[in-house]
UniProtKB/TrEMBL annotation:
Native source organism of the sequence: Brugia timori
Domain of life: Eukaryota
Stored Pfam families: GIT1_C
Ranges for domain ARF GTPase-activating protein GIT1 C-terminal: 3-68
Protein name as catalogued: GIT1_C domain-containing protein
Listed InterPro entries: GIT1_C
Amino acid sequence: LVAILISRILTIIPEERRTPAVETCLQRMSDSTVILSAKCNAPTFSVNDTCAAAFAVANSAKQLLVNVHQF
């Protein structure tokens, strides 16, 4: 579900707002989401690793909002 929502966010940013900083945030958010999914589906579940991965997704989303609204 998280990956679907992040994917939607990645596609709704208008082209005129896609500065290099925004593109970097989008890539980080995408990469963080892949890592979070892997941590959630790992055979040996680590709460700390999963929380860190979730924080990385949230942090990149926050930075994306900051960069999109600096236009």
